[in-house]
Structure formats: structure tokens, C-alpha cells
Amino acid sequence: MSEQTISAIIITLNEADNLPECLQTLKFCHEVIVLDQQSRDQTSRLAEALGARVISTDIWLGFGLQKQRALDAATGDWILSVDADERVTPELAREIQHAIKTDLVDGYVLKRRSQFLGKWMRHGGWYPDRILRLAKREHARFDPTPIHEKMLVDGNVSELKYPLLHYSYRSVEDVLAKQKSYAIASGKKKLADGQSAGVATALFRSAWTFTRLFIFQLGFLDGRHGLIAAISKSQEAFWKYLIVAWPGDRSV
Predict the structure, then answer these.
(1) Which of 117, 128, 197, 233 would staple 244 via disulfide (CB 3.0–4.6 Å)?
(2) Where in the chain is the domain with CATH 3.90.550.10?
(3) pLDDT digits over 139-194, tens only?
(4) Would the pTM of this model clear 0.70, i.e. be above it?
């Protein structure tokens, strides 16, 4: 069997601080494609300097369709989807290389390990965060959802051992910015899907999110970081459903 090639795909917007370190961990890939949303910083220049093929676009289609565009531009036998704030460890890189040689399945789930305000989280739904990120190109596609997109695989899927590292939520400002972005995008999607909700729903969803993450999924074992993370996600749930309850310019 001929050597199996890997295309890593990344979508970016103003990721100059994150991208170089991410690309350094992808040297084992045969091709790296960066689909850039007209970043105002040095994202594109840095990506090209580190050997990536940069595709610039001024159209934002949502996470799912944007990643599908990057996938469509790839030429490798396998697709590895990563974000700019994620890192492939040497152990995971070797495991990926070995896995694609065996050709036993059509896709692989990675166990993502995430930082929250500088702490590696282990509870509250944070780890292991199992995500499908590696698949044969001809069997892979992304769902078209604008947020919390997923790679889909037509075929059998297995799981790799070593984690994908995720350096997210590095500051309180970062937490607030992502909380707002995710809440708005998720709320608009629910409206587009014809869903409805009231203030009571927003309150219930918020309270349930906190209880589920902090109590049932043992977020309290991560200490104050677990508490802050659970509060953040509960607030995100509240605003998401409030957008559904009060769409457009309606006032409370």
C-alpha cells in the first residue's frame, strides 16, 4: 500500500498569537491548509512563512461550512481538523501516523484536554472531551451548523489514546468574549430552526447547566476554576435562550 498522506486544516481569524505554535506541531502532516477570514493581524503571513497553504476569504459561512471549504481544498488521503489554539503532541503525532498505516477504520476520535484560565480541567464535562477530528478525506464531511460543528464520517470509527491539547479561555476577557459569541450564534440558530422559549426556559436551562456541570459531572473537584467554568456555561445558556425568547429588537 502506498504511503498515506495527511492534510491538516485550520480556519482562522486574527490568530497570529496562536497559529505559529499550532503549526509547529503539525510538521508531520504532508499538507497544512489555513482558511483565513481576512485577518487584520499577521495570521496569513505567518502561516505562509511556516509552509501552510493559505486560502483567504471574505465570506463567513459559519463554522461547519467554513471547515467544509477547507476540507474541499485538501488533497491528502486523511484529514486532520485542528483549531489554532490546539496542539498535537509528539505522542499523538506518532499515534496518528501509526493509525493511518493500519487502515483499519475510516475515522478516529481524539480526546481533547483543555485549559481554562491556566488550569488543565479534568471534570465538569471538560475531559475527556471526545471529538472526531481525523478521517479519510473521501469519507469525511462537516455538518453545516454555524456553531459547535462536527466532523461526520461515513464508515467505522475508533479512538486514539493520546490527548489533543487545547489552550482555550486564557483570560476572563476571553471567557466573556467567547460566551457572548457562542450564546448569540446558538440563539440565532435556534430561532432559524423555529424553536421557541420564554424567560422561564432561560432560567431553567441556566440553572440546570450549572447543576449538571458543577454537581453531576463533578466540576467542583476542579476547585474555583470548576466553579467559574460552570457559572460561565450557565450564563451562556441563559443568554442563548433569552435571545430565543426575545428575538430582534423586542424590549424586555
Answers:
(1) 197
(2) 6-167
(3) 999 999 888 899 999 999 999 999 999 999 999 999 999 999 999 999 998 998 89
(4) yes
